[in-house]
Amino acid sequence: MGKITGFMELERATPALRPVAERIADWDALYKPFAEERLQEQASRCMDCGVPFCHNGCSLGNLIPVWNDWAYRGEWALAVEALHRTNNFPEFTGHICPALCEASCVVGINQEPVTIREVERTIAEQGFARGLIVPRPPQELTGKRVAVIGSGPAGLAAAQQLTRAGHTVTLYEKAAHAGGLLRYGIPAFKLEKHIIDRRLQQMLAEGLTVRTGVHVGVDLPVAQLRQENDAILLTGGAEQPRDLPIPGRSLSGIHFAMEFLGQQNRRLGGEDLSREQAILATDRHVVVVGGGDTGADCVGTSVRQGAKSVTQIELLPKPPKDRAPETPWPLWPMQLRLSSSHQEGCSQEWSILTKYFEGEDDRVRRLHCVRLRWQENEGGGRPQMTEIADSAFSLDADLVLLAMGFVSPVKSGLLEELAVALDERGNVRVNDRYMTSVEGVFAAGDMATGQSLVLKAIYGGRQAAREVDAWLRGGETVLP
Amino acid sequence: MMQNSLPDKQGLYDPFLEHDACGIGFVASIDGKKSHGIISMALEVLVNLTHRGATGADPLTGDGAGLLMQLPDAFLRAECKALKINLPPEGRYGVGMIFLPKNPHLQDSYRRHVEQIIADEGQQLLGWRAVPISPDAQIGYTAKASEPAVFQVFIGQGITPDEVDELWLERKLFVIRRRIENAVLGYSKEEVKSFHIASMSSRTLLYKGMFLAEQVAAYYPDLSEPAMVSAFAMVHQRYSTNTFPTWDLAHPFRMICHNGEINTLRGNINWMHAREAVLASPLFGDGMKRLFPIVPEGISDSASFDRALEFLVLSGRSLPHAMMMMIPEAWENHRQMDPDRRAFYQYHGSIMEPWDGPAAVAFTDGRYIGATLDRNGLRPARYLITKSGLCILASEAGTIAVPPEEEVQHGRLQPGRMFVIDLQQGRIIDDGEIKAEIVARQPYRQWVEENLIPLDALPDGMPVVEEQEPLQARAHLFGYTEEDIHLILAPMVQTGEEPVGSMGNDAALAVLSDRPVLLFNYFKQLFAQVTNPPIDPIREELVMSLYTQLGPAGNLLAETPDHVRRIGLSQPILTNRDLEKIRAVTMDPLRAKTLSILYPADAGPEGLKQAMVRLCNEVSVSLAAGYGVLILSDRGCSAARIPIPVLLATSGVHHHMIRSGSRNQASIVVETGEAREVNHFALLVGYGASAVNPYMAFELLTDLAGRQLLGGEQDPEQIRYRYIKAINKGMLKVFSKMGISTLRSYCGAQIFEAVGLDRHVVERYFTGTVSRIEGINLEAIAKDALRRHQRAYSGSLAYQDGLDVGGEYKFRRDGERHMWTPTTISLLQRATRENDYGLFKEFSRTIDEQSQALCTLRGLFRLKRVPTPIPLDEVEPASELVKRFVTGAMSFGSISKEAHETLAIAMNRLGGRSNTGEGGEDPQRFKPRPNGDFARSAIKQVASGRFGVSSHYLVNATEMQIKIAQGAKPGEGGQLPGHKVNEVIARTRNTTPGVTLISPPPHHDIYSIEDLAQLIFDLKNVNPAARVSVKLVAEVGVGTVAAGVAKGHADMILIAGGDGGTGASPLSSIKHAGIPWELGLAETQQTLVLNDLRGRVRLQTDGQLRTGRDVVIAALLGAEEFGFATAPLVVEGCVMMRKCHLGTCPTGIATQDLALRKKFTGEPQHVINFFYFVANEVREIMAAMGFRRLDDMVGRVELIRTEQAVKHWKAMGLDFTTILHKPDVPSNIATRCIQPQDHGIDHVLDLKLMDLAERAFNNKKPIEIRLPIQNTDRTVGAMLGGEISKRFGVDGLPAETITCHFEGVAGQSFGAFNVNGVSLHLQGAANDYVGKGMSGGRIVVRPHRHSALVAEENIIVGNTLLYGATGGEAYFRGIAGERFAVRNSGASAVVEGVGDHGCEYMTGGVVVVLGRTGRNFAAGMSGGVAFVYDRRGDFSALYNPAMVTLQPMDDADEKQLRRLLERHRAYTESAVATHILAHWQAAMALFVKVMPVEYQRVLAQLKAVREREQHG
To answer: Cβ of B826 under 8 Å from any chain A Cβ?
Structure first.
């Protein structure tokens, strides 16, 4: 540990957001640059705990105290190495991870936690800037072929690991570019897309084949893939969004968040949108249904598109401003999380139940809602909601974005054709070795777990890669 | 072969582990005149040493006593005449004193053996005499049960060659005895048990048995016969750790009696065996082999020593010469020593390693009688010479009342010094003379200079051949982890020391780990506790030595220049260059042979065994070819070549050489990539390596430096130097925790216990090592090695980016398993804060499951449940169970006031007990708070530093706990750096803020078991109402130590697990010293039950206890009480940062920083919740097991099962039979505590004093008391002081309220814990520990007014005076022994000369020495001031300059000194003081002021602050 008293001397500091007026005028990154020395100072706040809760809080098991120290000492090469031992894509998580680590940081017991995510991001950026992140092609090939279907974080991580293990890997992606939700779901201001491209360059140089624009199960029969490959790994995500089946749902102007966000990302990426109807918030009253991160992304995107107004509503009650007592440290805190988007102009409402959409000319115009009261369930279990009498109200809405999460993977096509067994939630069932009910077909990421976080997807991809590798070798895996 | 009735090895009990200690003494007529009076006086000495012995469960059975004297020719002649035995002239016959079985058949059979061998050796059997036994002698039933028939056999000198030396008959008798002893080995074990030859000599005769002191004379009427005369009589009172009838183990032996302990015994025995192959002496001729083994297995350390000594003497060395070989002085760092004498020791160092350990040895061969002390002077020995030419030497002064006017000289033995009386010449020969004579026997110095080659003098060899394989691959191969590099290697270079850590070890045991564990980790360091002291290798560096030699060792029985033709090393860690020098030696007999310890990787796990066979063959071939140095090398590893674990190779070769009788033909040097940390080097040396070259560690360090990761250190030489320095320092620490001073005696001493190795591995490769639960076999060891090899060569990407994460020292998800994880910590904190039993159950389930997932031994246990559980409400309530719970000893200082008081309040609310830890307690906490809370810790700890241990502190205790060791760092001291000693801490510790406080490794008043009994007695006197407990740490043999402690009258014994926590300790100690409490507790329970001692002592255990299941298992293994430390700290908010040693605890627990302390959020209620949760869980398990009361569970090991539990491939070999053994004892033998101890304080002198002082108590009017005193009056003043503290509080009584005048020789601990208002004036002399813990008042000791002695030239008081004194004043007219005013923090004292180590660890107070000091004065002295009257001008060579400077005196000093001298003169009529005061100016020029550097700085700061306040 570099600095023993760092946490006693320094307050937490993070990069500043650019002013709202400036940032909503473009799609660029939200944050101002952060001086390297200041970041190193921040890294010195790490206490290098005997029991590092952050390291455990992180799904990937990142060796946080180790690279915090290397960052503090400016040992970027060692930091990059330590960081990549557990995480293929720290530049992704460094930008968009909710940072479970920081929630469980020991400094956070009674102070502001260490800015772990910022350290992670910086190490990754230093790594690229200093040429420390280079292709690491396998030393010899196994001759085994693997198809990885779906290029989100799970697929990317698995593909990179399997390639490095010496297998010949093809990564299939139905969209025009690889990256999955990283590219199409997350707004550019949160994750600039060249960051993904930069990493793909490395992966291609390592020998990975990426086939985009190929929708397996639609454009390409799975049977053929199975024939051509020794193993198949499904990492297609959980793309089936949760719907809101209430009166008026069929009106136009009501879209799933991903349609909206995906289109904007493709627009920025220069993809051809001419054959589809534009979903734009420009000059519209936008209501975002769903109070999570995707909802916030819809807010920020709507603002940048020039919405007249943006309202975000949420079924659940407003969380407390600070860590709720039921979720003491080191648990993931239940607390109000305001994203950058919320500063950019929107109103937020909680405990709102949407009753029906009202439209004009087949287009949605209003949203009718009622307020809810949430009560503890005496017998334990989930809290109960009741509608508050006479609390009905309506909102102007000529673009409604449904950001209520995802229910499961899309079944049609690939999964149906493979006839893999599903679990009770409709996800692909895998055993503890990541294999589906079909021999030689593996699954990981949201497709196997249901919707989750990017870092969990990366972790799943890495773990699945180990199992695929072991299976292909008929023995021990060489992967970490 | 012996009378020995120790039980057989069973369960965890092993008779080999028994210890003993004692009081020794002799009375001799210096002119050699024989009289019966000598014998009577010696018997009186013996009786007055009774308190140094012990009794077991049977009050009439002593541990043994005996008397050795010259052969009483006249008496025997008369007796023989009656028996019609014709004795030849004196000197032409010998007498064997033989214990025979009472069974007549067996007796006859033995007698025939004896007779036949006598005849066989051409000598004459003259006859047998049944030694009369007094029918009235009251010996105990235990002794009676194994009472032998005692016979004397008379052997006449028969066939004799023409020219014989004076020892011819002695030698012949020795041969006869050894042959008889070897012959009876053919008998069955039971039969052999009742045979023993106590002595067989033409010069001496020995009467001994399993007696209390006064029983010796009563048992043997011979001893009362006036015709029974001798010029000397040597006596011994034994204190053994057991209560078993062992007539043979009573001392004296044939040549010695010994007080102390030989720590290096295992090694000494092995080396003696090793020598046998090359032993040759014309004196014994060809028949030598019949005498082997010289030192048989299975006898005590003292008996072994006696055997070796006897052999050396009979083969031609004089007795003092042999003693000098076996117990050499600390010559290595002694610059003032005469070069010839140094050369003598150096020469003999190549012949024999020291028999290392605390020792006062009295020895005789019939002509010489003498005594010597070990190099560190750790045992007391005082002597008195009288006008009538008597010399009385004993462990204590005053064992015989001698009129003061008869006294000629009072002296003491000094460290490493010898005292010899030549009875033929009729005079005392002092140390200088006798040694000068011996040293001049041969031109030793010339031999050394001409033959011994210092390593530096060797020419360089070839450059090292660089390794072909990449560094990282090799690092994997040798199992390096990131932690090894960054937490171990790098810090060693940066700081020059082994890194420090904190909290306990909660990681999986090696044998339970899933990871490939280095073989090193299966060994746990042993350490000294109670039966001998650890040493402080820093402050007492002068006795420590890493010096060693390489090359073959010659015939022990000859003396030639060739014996020292060897390579001398100043320390054992070799750089590559050093090693190449050795490798390049071509000169016989030092030629070096390099033997590769690699074997083919594709040989699989079975390949290791063949590899060892091949290696041992190569060793034999090399030895036959005359190589004198064997270099075992694991260089050249590759994908195809895998190294034998280096420890296995080293120890395997070592034992192969011992077995094949070739061990002394060559030294083993190890060239290895595997060794990196202190423990590795200690193990390699402990298993036979003389030197080690850790080439990988060097290479990795160079690599780190190249990458700028060593804090800028670049110079490779400097890096190696610092690394070696750190390892050296660490090794000395490891040696010293076992009380061993020298590398040469540590080498091969095997001071380790194996945990988890199967018996075949141990028997073959680690012969003689204790391994009690079996474990992995050779294949499993090989498998681990293969797994490491795979990391390097399987192509795994996991290991391409870097080394394994490790996770030993810090939690890592992919690293070693720990019990404390983010999950368990957070569950426990949430459960206790939210008072949620459900969450706690989740916690305990997780812990118990982890435990089962092979972190702990108890994890593998299954509890036997009853089919129908009893209703929960019938089980003892939780409110009762919690009273058995205590919190661990954590000092206020190591943890914050908030954390400390929260625990105390919680435990007081519960009715459990909290512990002060070492550091005193603020008296404000002794009063309950207005809200009813009580922050007083019920347990007051008494640790080696004695910080804050005053009379007032002790009387405020419910329990007084003597901490012998602590799990995280047994055998080590501690240090609280000055910057952590704030105002409050300084106040509670009676010291000065800002001054560093050092806790010495040993208690300086406990070097031996009888010393502990004395301290228990002291404490009990101060506070008779409180119980006394003794904290021990689990290691092999802890059970026997506990038995000794129980005999020393402890009320409770705490067996702490080796995993316990700490605020700061070297990492290797946290990890590698001490064993799980399961083993220690079970061993203790078994041993106490076997000894019938369990009924009078309670047992407690601690060390990573967390759940109800843990408590239940502890109870079943034998504990009645349970300690928790880490868990309550976690409840208070600890998150196992393991940063306690840095003081940056972020939750305000282990810190004194105000800002951090504000972050403390623990509450007593949380702690209470925790203990209730545990208690409830215990109740649930009790119900399931069918128990209503916890007492009923204690010791019920049969309810633990281990079948089906073990599934792990490594753990499969484990066998818990020994842990789960239940001694088969009759039902009347208690298996839990059922009765209190008898502390023997019902008749102490203080009761009389208190009676007489009652008036002063009532009206505080001064009174004077006059009483005689003798050495059996111990701890005088302590009970009186305790009573005063209790009644009048910390300030005691007004000065001079009670004045006592004593005449005589006071027993130990005179004036201990004296308090304000009490003055103790003694005319005569006193023994050890005067003024121990004195908190106030005055002690004066002066010679008797009728004594004609020159006071300032004679010893008047013993060793270790004013230990931990916090106030008061003391005046001693005369010289004191070693360690005067050790850890004094407030007393003023004047003395007229002191022994070695004066003012050691002193932190405050004033000491005036008006005469010579010994060496090492002021070592570790961080506070206070000493004035030394340096008349000879040699003081500057005697003090230890590490922490103090010598300064001229200023006016204030002069004033202070003058005041003290005036008082000294007034109280003692000191001639020296009178002279100085009369010649003040001249005397002042000779005074030196000894001032601690830090203390001076702190005082200056204080002064500046005060001045600023005055002016501001």
So the answer is: yes
Q: Within 13 Å and on the Cβ side, how many CA atoms surround B1276?
A: 31
Helices (H), ranges, B1050-1193: 1067-1072, 1077-1090, 1108-1117, 1126-1132, 1154-1157, 1164-1185
Query: Exposed, middle or buried: residue A419 (CB in 10 Å: 0-12, 13-18, 19+)?
Result: exposed
Q: How far apart are CA A299 and CA A281, in angstroms?
A: 10
Question: What's the predicted TM-score (pTM) here?
Answer: 0.95
- Token pair, residue B902, equals 């929260």
Q: Are A432 and A443 in contact (CB under 8 A)?
A: no
Distance CA B1379, CA B1415 (A): 10
The arithmetic mean of pLDDT across residues A80-107, rounded, is 96
Q: Are B656 and B617 in contact (CB under 8 A)?
A: no
Q: List for chain A the helix, strand, coil content (%; round to 5).
A: 35, 20, 50
- Report DSSP letters for B78-111, one per residue: HHHHHTT----STTSEEEEEEEE-SSHHHHHHHH
User: Which of A49, A164, A330 is the closest to B797 by Cβ?
Assistant: A164
Half-sphere exposure of A376 (CA within 13 A, CB side): 4
Going from the C-alpha of B212 to that of each of A147, B46, B101, B1012, the distances in angstroms are 88, 9, 22, 19
Q: Are B482 and A65 in contact (CB under 8 A)?
A: no
Q: Does A327 touch chain B (CB under 8 A)?
A: no
Asked if B1066 contacts B969 with a C-beta cutoff of 8 angstroms, the reply is yes
Q: Which two tokens stand for residue B1330?
A: 């005067």
Tell me if A284 sits within 8 A of A307, measured CB to CB.
yes
Question: B67-113, pLDDT tens digit by residue?
Answer: 999 999 999 999 999 999 999 999 999 999 999 999 899 899 999 99
**By C-alpha distance, which of B1313, B1306, B1361 is closest to B1335?**
B1313
Peptide bond into B252 cis (omega under 30): yes
Residue B1317: φ, ψ to 5° = 100, -10
**Which residues have C-beta within 8 Å of that of residue A467, sequence separation ≥ 6?**
A433, A434, A435, A442, A477
Specify the 3-state DSSP secondary structure of B711: coil
Give dist(CA A153, CA B539) in Å, integer.
61
CA distance B822 to chain A (A): 5
Q: Mean pLDDT of all residues in chain B?
A: 93
Residues B1280-1300: tens digit of each pLDDT: 999 999 999 999 999 999 999
Can you tell me the distance from the alpha carbon of B942 to that of B960, in angstroms, rounded to the nearest whole number?
7
Query: Are the beta carbons of B1139 and A139 separated by less than 8 Å?
Result: no
Say if CB B1049 and CB B1017 are below 8 A apart: yes
Burial of B1050 from C-beta contacts in 10 A (0-12 / 13-18 / 19+): buried
Residues 6+ apart with CB under 8 A from B580: B460, B461, B462, B463, B464
Mind giving me the DSSP string for B279-320?
---TTTGGGGGGG--SS-TTS-HHHHHHHHHHHHHHTT--HH
Q: Which of A51, A66, A70 to mutate to test the interface with B (most CBs of B within 10 A)?
A: A51
Q: Answer yes or no: do A480 and B1156 touch at CB < 8 A.
A: no
Say whether residue B1147 is in contact with chain A using an 8 A CB cutoff: yes
The yes-or-no answer on residue B1140 being catalytic is no
Question: Backbone dihedral region of B802: left (phi > 0), alpha (psi from -120 to 50 degrees) or beta?
Answer: left
Distances (CA, A) of B1386 to A371, B1422, B1489: 76, 13, 17
- Reference A344, options A293, A395, A310, A294; nearest CA is A310
- Inter-chain touch B823–A56, beta carbons under 8 Å: yes
Please determine, for residue B445, whether its predicted confidence score (pLDDT) is greater than 80: yes
Strand B1200-1201 with B862-863, pairing: antiparallel
Beta carbon pairs, A and B, within 8 Å: 112
Residues A56, B1136: C-beta atoms closer than 8 Å: no
